[in-house]
Amino acid sequence: MADSTIQIGILGCAEIARKVSRAILLSQTATLYAVGSRSIEKAQKFAADNGFPATGKVYGSYEEVLEDPNVDAVYVPLPTSLHIKWAVLAAQKKKHLLLEKPVALNVEEMDVILAACEANGVQFMDGTMWMHHPRTAKMREFLSDAKQFGELKSVNTCFTFTADQNFLETDIRVKPDLDGLGALGDVGWYCVRGILWAADYELPKSVIALRNPVFNKAGVTISCGASLLWEDGKVGTFHCSFLTNLTMDLTAVGTKGTLHLHDFIIPFEEKKASFISAVECGFKELALGWVPKPSEHTVTTDIPQEALMVREFCKLVGSIKNEGAKPEKKWPTLSRKTTLVLDAVKASIEKGFEAVEIVS
């Protein structure tokens, strides 16, 4: 097998692992080399259902995947409470790490994971797929254009979906011992990352959780929001929920322009995605319309954003494996900043919606 092909093992058979398995196949830079589950039968079925080659390794434990010397990297879609154990062990076994979000229950756990990655020279990346879509780079060009967008003043994000009763009672994302951050860690992760992205990853000074979050009987957050405040006056707000219709909005407002999109996490279509920009808009005489009208911009891609994520991850892993490069620090830095804000939102809720300062 060519040295340029990265051999990936998967720890666990979560639903999201089906999507990433397909992405690995579409990336053409990696191979589905191994899958491990606590049940060999479950791992066998997963491999059969998700395009694993006949030569793919199927294991009845996560340890066996990590012990396989031919595994270059692992994708870990396990419940968040298990990340610190298996991500650290993967790093200690010199396996590069593609870790599902939220990456940890808090920044203290995240720092343990990142320390293990740094000590063992392995690449870390989280599974925030929309970051890798070419639309995201194109939108960044607009936000960075001082003549068209100006200075960022506010950004608002929203990610919600209506979970059915079975989800609300049995999904790992509503279990305090599995994914205790609930909606904040799941859909809220994307909202916070979207705000930080628009702010060019400048951390806010403080965070204030919005009142009236919703908790389930076990005390897990299933709907909440917050405001993020910067020293220069920028404001970011978000709402995330398992209780309302599917919505994925991002709006960034500058002194001269505005960016709108309604599918910022998962595009409406797999191979093309659009955004709307408005620049120095005003009213026609008698306020009978807008001048100029906002414009729509469409960006196409040959492979979906999750495959582009795998491709970027494999490029970094390949550089380390074949060229002796150092791990790219951009991705762990972005994950840590996102986690810091989630921690502050959680702390603000627990402190009765007081402002919580971000200490990096």
From TrEMBL:
Residue ranges occupied by any GFO/IDH/MocA-like oxidoreductase domain in the UniProt entry: 144-259
Any matching Pfam family: GFO_IDH_MocA_C3
InterPro entries per record: Gfo/Idh/MocA-like_OxRdtase_N, GFO_IDH_MocA-like_dom, NAD(P)-bd_dom_sf
GO molecular function, one term: nucleotide binding
Residue span, Gfo/Idh/MocA-like oxidoreductase N-terminal domain: 6-125
Extent of the signal sequence: none
Top-level taxon of the source organism: Eukaryota
SUPFAM superfamilies cross-referenced by the UniProt entry: Glyceraldehyde-3-phosphate dehydrogenase-like, C-terminal domain, NAD(P)-binding Rossmann-fold domains
Protein family per UniProt: Belongs to the Gfo/Idh/MocA family.
PANTHER family: OS10G0403700 PROTEIN, PTHR46368
Protein's name in the database: Oxidoreductase
Organism of origin: Solanum commersonii
